[in-house]
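Lecture 7, part B: from sequences to assemblies.

Below are the input chains for today's worked example.
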Amino acid sequence: MVFNSYIFILFFGMVLLLHNLPFSWKVKKINLLLASYIFYAAWNPPFILLLWLSTVVDYFVGRALYTQTNVHKKRFLLVISLLGNLGMLCFFKYGAFLLDNFVHLVNALGVAYHPAKPNIILPAGISFYTFTTLCYTIDMYRKESKPVQSLLDFSLFVTFFPHLVAGPIVRPPQLVPQFQSPRRATKQQLLEGLFLLSLGLFMKVTLADSMLAASANMVFGASGPLPSLDAWMGTLAFAGQIFLDFAGYSTCAIGVALCLGFVLPLNFRWPYGAIGFSDFWRRWHITLSSWLRDYLYIPLGGNRKGQTRTYVNLMLTMLLGGLWHGANWTFVAWGGLHGLYLWVEKLLTDRKKITPMLVVPTATGDGIPENTPVMAKLARSAKPFLGGLPYVLLTFLLVNITWVFFRSATFSGAGHMLSSMFGFVQDGRPLLTTLAMIKITVILLALIILHWRLRDIQLTDIIYRLPWWALGSLWACMLILLILSQESTSTFIYFQF
Amino acid sequence: MKPITKAAILMAILVVVFIAGWEFYLRSSGVTISYDEGKELWTAQRARVYTSPAMATVFIGSSRIKFDLDIDTWQKLTGRKAIQLAMEGNSPVPILEDLAADPRFAGKLVIDVTEPVFFSADDAPVRHEQKENISYYRNRTPAQRASFLLDCALESQLVFLDKEGLSLNAQLDELPIPNRPNVFMPPIFPLDFARVTFDRQDKMSPRFLADSSLQRRVQNIWVFMKKAGMAYMSQHPVDPAPAIMQRVIAAVGKIKSRGGEIVFVRPPASGPMEIGEERGFPRTKYWEPLLAATQCKGIHFADDPATAQLICPEWSHLSPSDAKVYTRALIRLLPESFAH
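Predicted structure of the full complex, as structure tokens:
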């Protein structure tokens, strides 16, 4: 089930009603769990079995890991859990990719091996719920938090429908305590939640799907060379689409949870207002970048094992982060390019000796390794030129280059697009209408200005800074445009990850 | 009262007033209900093809059969359902192949042959949405099925829910903004040209039939599309028809081998469209070899006095009243097993 469908509105209305009826807290949790299973099964019922398997295995293995004192047995249990979770992920998400690469390798070695193409359907959200359960297992192994006391609470933690299929990726301490005592949204929380749900749907349906998706698809689907203007416009359209689609989903998820009285972690904080790449990753898909920091970068040694290892660890984290997004080398290249940007940024930081690389949580406990980016330093220097806008634009420009690899299905496609963008091809046929380019320009300009001006402000704070009539009018405009868009039931881009 | 509560009340009032006002304005302007002609509606029909052949006939093709077959007339006179799977601007060949590949389908099939679309190559400048529809039919989720039911319930009551004609993008597309040279701008049909019923029949509105300027606008679109087709053909001199013919022969053979029955129909065209199609796709080179190769019956509009004299207001499709005449004639001309 997707948030942008009529059936979800009906479903959510019923869940909200049930959650506010005078049932016991346990009955309400069972209702939420059943609703979450229905939410997931409405996509493909058989895959609910995978979710159950993952939940039951991790619940019992997690408890055993916490109480086990024998180091060897503990490691054995950890390996079982990792194999179970990552094995499922590898089979469903990377099975075809691994086989394809294996075939290429043996063919290159002269062995004629041509197996049938596997027809594996990717279960929705498997990357997200696998990371959710993995962090529980690892926390239990490290004894960083206490085991969840009931299977009901653990199942709800894994399956809670607002975050289940596309995040935010939650950690046990963020959500499990909220299931331990009765919760019901206050009137203010309910209205705040509904506002966030409206905003998220507006971002996804009106802006991403209705205004930008067609242009991005047309440009990235073009078979021939393109004029530079069209190539840039298509890339900008995708930059807007991917943000509005994914941040729209996260905003919906946070809003839906809030309507039920639960608080989910923030996943985006004005990422196109970032100054530098460390800053970008503290603002983009925050729950994934902090997951990668805590469960990959730091265990690899982080910045504690010298300069060279720090660079290697940084790159490995970004490459695997890229691969998490999809079974294609273009995603790895996307991650690698971000890793490269982080390297350059760190190199500049180290040369200027602005500050050593430290792992310091940000104010909200999110973000990848804190290395006080050089550009952020420059932007904060005596008199920031135009409030740091040139650095924001430079970062945004470089991020756009990475989106080319993210969006292109092949390296040759990415190469063609980059060649067109930088004017290395001639005689490209113009594709985009003037109206399409106006839409892209207006939306992207508005996004960049908003992200730049609001980069230090929480979204929910804005709700309370606006006069009520302005907030009401803004809310009404979003809903009217959402209704007029008449785009429904298209899936979110991150579902495929 | 807290500011957010006041904001929510204001929002609710503004939204209700705007939507009610927009709906009232459209209704008072004579706009009628039209369903979204998307993959969801198509899929709902595709799922019905397993109805007993004694109870239903399946129609595939492009827009002509959607306008020209009056489903009410068909159902009243034959007592059978008409399952409309034709797609505007799309060749029916991929749909035919999908039905042929489906071992459960062994019904009665009527195929509209509009030659410029029927014999178009896979990369020709016509619409290519068949694969998307077929894929959606095969993979639709329980949530999508349920959403479709709710969607239809709303679309049946609210005029403004018309994605193709009244959505935000459709409204913006009407803005007279010039494009750069060589940018292909898909043609925009007038809202009144096609109002879509739940069973996927297209009907011209009374305003369209009364307004010759709207008819000219559509005629200009046909001229534009003909030019696009000619430009494509000048760059692609290889005729795709022989390869398409082989695909059709194979698909027809499969359906017939399961006991299915197939009839080809050539719906009416008028004026320059009729002349241009006969010049570009002569009967002796396309229509007749198609019937001979597939060993199927064919019903060409020019062969029957009742259908030969029908006039298409915009050269290509029949008015709702003439669709009734054409449907009655079609029932008379079809083999007895189809219509009686």
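Note for the exam: Chain A touches chain B through 50 residues (CB under 8 Å). Keep this in mind when comparing with the next example.
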